[in-house]
Design a protein that fits this description.
This is 2,3,4,5-tetrahydropyridine-2,6-dicarboxylate N-acetyltransferase. Strands 3-6-11-14-16-17 form a 6-stranded mixed beta sheet, with no helix packed on it. It is elongated and about 65 Å long. The protein has helices spanning 2-13, 17-22, 88-92, 108-114, 178-187, 194-199, 208-215; strands spanning 26-28, 36-37, 42-43, 47-49, 57-59, 64-65, 70-72, 98-101, 104-107, 122-124, 129-130, 135-136, 140-142, 147-148, 153-154, 162-165, 170-174. The chain has 7 helices and 17 strands. By secondary structure, it is of the alpha/beta class.
Length: 216
């Protein structure tokens, strides 16, 4: 019976139905009000997760984000103690209880704000393609032109125009040599106006060398 219900929910709500049911700390990227998302960027059902109010998510322009990508913007309450990763004060104490740290008493509600992790927030560059079911962990910066393969778990910064995959994600190759990467970043076509994009749309199907030669 339980298996039948799970299959039914999967069909109705999709593979991440458990996120839908829990719903407390995650939201669809397209429905979230706080991420900064650049012009023309789209997603097909990505999720953003955060437990701290100050955790940010910034995504550049012209990014393509596939189904069921997860942006985990902070580590929750698992990094406050050097002894355990269990969120003791959050799970055991009540909101108005007190806890003493370094001889200073704190209410649990105030402590959760004080102990917010510095390893929070995600920054994604421009022209980034993120494959299905990829997970982006907190305190990560993803460069321009990056491709993240499906199912990858990104735990470290990714340089411009790298292709990464695996768990944890590693650089598989670079799309271009450093000279070309530098030239593309200097052209920064993603900042062009809509009018300029329309006028030069055919140029995106030139060879990379001819594109750079024309627009440098």
């Amino acid at each position: 019976m339980i298996l039948y219900i799970r299959k039914l929910l999967w069909r109705i709500l999709g593979i991440n139905y458990y996120n839908y049911l829990k719903g407390k700390n995650s939201v669809y990227l397209k429905d979230a009000k706080w991420p900064l998302v650049g012009d023309k960027t789209y997603d097909n059902g990505a999720f953003v997760w955060k437990w701290y109010n100050d955790s940010g998510l910034k995504i550049g322009k012209y990014c393509s984000i596939a189904n069921d990508v997860n942006f985990i913007c902070d580590p929750g309450f698992h990094t406050e103690s050097e002894i355990t990763s269990f969120p003791l004060f959050h799970e055991i104490l009540e909101k108005n209880d007190e806890i003493v740290i370094d001889n200073i008493p704190y209410k649990v509600s105030d402590l959760s704000k004080k102990l917010q992790s510095k390893k929070a927030g995600i920054v994604v560059g421009n022209d980034v393609w993120i494959g299905m079911n990829a997970t982006i962990l907190p305190n990560v910066k993803i460069g321009n032109g990056v491709t993240i393969l499906a199912g990858a778990v990104v735990s470290d910064d990714i340089p411009d125009y790298a292709v990464v995959g695996g768990v944890p994600a590693k650089v598989i190759k670079f799309k271009h040599n450093q000279e070309i990467i530098d030239a593309l970043n200097k052209i920064n076509w993603w900042d062009w106006s809509d009018e300029k994009m329309k006028l030069n749309i055919n140029d995106f199907y030139l060879s990379i060398e001819n594109f750079i030669k024309k627009h440098s």
